[in-house]
Task: structure prediction
Amino acid sequence: MVNSNTALAPRVKHTSPIDGLDIYSLQTGIKEVVTYRGSFLGGSFFAKRNILIPEMTGAMLDLGTKKRDKFEIGEALESVGAKLGFSAGRYRVHFFGRCLKEDLSLVIELLAEQLKEPAFHQDDLKSIVQRRRAELKKQKEDTRTRAVEEFLRQLYPERHPNFIPSLDDKIVEIEKVTTEDLMSFHNDHYGLGSMNVSFVGDVDHRTVEQEVDRQFRGWKKTSLKTEQEVDLVAKTVNKAFFETVQVPDKTSADLVTGHGIGIHREHKDYYSVMMGHFILGGNFSARLMATVRDQEGLTYGIQSATGGVEEGNDGYWYIWGTFGPDVLETAKKSISRELCLWHEKGVTLGELTAKQSTITGTYKVGLDTTAGLATRILTTVERGKELSFMDEYPDIINNLTLDQVNAAIRSYCNPDNRITIVAGTVNNTN
Result:
């Protein structure tokens, strides 16, 4: 039960000084320093043709504006010891950093300038394309990346948000990105409408509100939404499917196995499903680590988890592990044994209680820093949750029953019908 004396949500101030922009602030005992996190819709989900255009747009936000070049911006931040960075993900463009309380007005000014008036210089784009191309080529040699990539490509249809383009396709597409593409994407997708910003530390909400209003008022508003096509769901896996992705000259192979769960993060059964997989393979004391790693010595790392459940998407469960090619077949059998035992017998009350303590403890530790608090506030509102959810989450986890978790394991996992992908220098065997 939430303790009203320690509850976080009532301490957070929330206002909307401009339509489409919400500000959240939390005053803490930290003196003179403010940490900030913010986001708005504009990620790769909204790419119409080239999946890399949103990513490149976000990557160039801190490389100069129509008023200042990247060196002037860097010097302005460095001179006051402030940090301000950007990243573009699947759905949102994120910005983040920290500064002294007295320099917050400058940071908000620079934030607005970089978001509203990026320069998109050709030379900077060329450098970013070269760096990103090298990263993509390096990822082609990473066996875990290749296994996950193929797993998701086999599980989801092409237009589904959880489907990912191949690395080869990305390498081709990166060469096609132009500054005109970035300008067009920015003009069509960047703006108010879905922006949330959280400030934590020695923060005065009224001052922040005034500065944000002054810098962002008049910026255009977008109508972006994350609704996906209702007919796009994970493929039904009616039998065991195996595939090998050959990656030359590797001394180990990565295995990914699993299937869709057909529900998203807000479904009533989701936390039960998540808990079941955390008990199976969520940390170093989970079942798979205790057996496949510690007892049998087949791997240095193995885990089980859920994924792809954001923004109403039907997600999936998966087991991942890395193995030497000589023990790969043994590892497959070991994973199947543990998976079937978990599915047939369920988990124990002792396991559930221990993992509830682990999850809630980790959650609370994450709120011990201003960065953790700012991130938690932001992710809560990004999900469309009330701020009270931050305080309710530990109770949601602790109130899960053994019957609920074991019923979810049986309902949302089929050990016999799953996709298994192995990436590495291995023989093509099942």
The CA atoms of residues 83 and 102 lie 14 Å apart. The chain has 15 helices and eleven strands. The mean pLDDT is 95.
